[in-house]
Amino acid sequence: MAERFTGYVALGDSFTEGMNDHGGDGIFRGWADLAATRMAEADPELKYANLAIRGKLFDEVVDEQVPAALRLRPDLVSFVAGGNDALRTSFDPARMAGRFHEAIRVLTASGARVLMSTGFHPPRLPAHRLLRKRIVALNEIIRKVAKRHDAALVDLFADEAFADTRMWSEDRLHMSALGHRRVAHHVCQALSVDPDPKWSAPLPTAPGKSWLRRRREDAAWTREHALPWVQRRFTGQSSGDMITPKRPQLMPVSQVGS
C-alpha cells in the first residue's frame, strides 16, 4: 500500500534539482518533480517543494537546506547529497559520516519520512576507478545512516541500467531525461507508489560509434564541459552561485511538468 503524504520537500544538488532534464517552461524538471507528480495523481492534495541547487556540497545542503525544510514542516523529505564532494580532492567520508547521521536524525525527529539514495558514478568521466572507490565509500555511509534511522533507501548503484551512456546528458555528469525517469521509477517503488511503466522500459540496442567519432566527442566534452569545471575550481566559483531554489515553498503539484 502506498504511503500517503501531505508535503514533500526535496533537498540536494543538481541531481535533485533536475539537471539536465529540460522542462517545457525552461526550468529543469528531474526525478523529484516526476515522483511528486506521480504521488499527486493518487493524492491531489499533496504539496511539493524543491530546495536543491546545483553545485552544492554536502555541508551546504545540511547547513542551508535542512533548516529551510524543517520550517516547511513536511512529512516526506528526500535527502541526496555528497556527490559533488566525491569529485574533489578534499573528499573525507569519515568526517561526513557524523554530519550525515545528525542531519537525518534531525529530519526524522521532526516526524518526516526520509528518503535517501546511494550514489553512482557516470560511466564516461575520467579517473573512473578513483571516482568509483569514493562513491563506494560514500554509499557505505548512506546505507548505514538509512538503516540506523529507518529511512527509505533507493539503491541506484545496484542498477546496471545506469551504465548505459544514454542515461547521461552531454556533460557526462548529469542525468539525461531518460536517466531521471529511471530514478523516478526507483523512488516511486521505494514509496510503494505505482511508477509510470515507460520510465523503466528497456532501451533499444544503441548503434555503434566509430573510434573517430568517440574521439571527437571526447574533445568536444573537454572543451565545453571539463575545462569550464576546472576553471571554476581554480576561481572558487560554483555552478550554483546566484541560483535560487526552483520551488522554495510547498505548493500544489499541479504546475509541475510530467
Automatic annotation (TrEMBL):
Region: Disordered, residue numbers: 237-258
InterPro entries: GDSL_Rv0518-like, SGNH_hydro, SGNH_hydro_sf
Domain SGNH hydrolase-type esterase: 10-182
UniProt cross-references to Gene3D superfamilies, sorted A to Z: SGNH hydrolase (3.40.50.1110)
Domain of life: Bacteria
Coiled-coil regions listed in the entry: none
Source organism of the structure: Stackebrandtia nassauensis (strain DSM 44728 / CIP 108903 / NRRL B-16338 / NBRC 102104 / LLR-40K-21)
A family per Pfam: Lipase_GDSL_2
Protein name (database record): Lipolytic protein G-D-S-L family
Matching CDD domains: SGNH_hydrolase_like_1
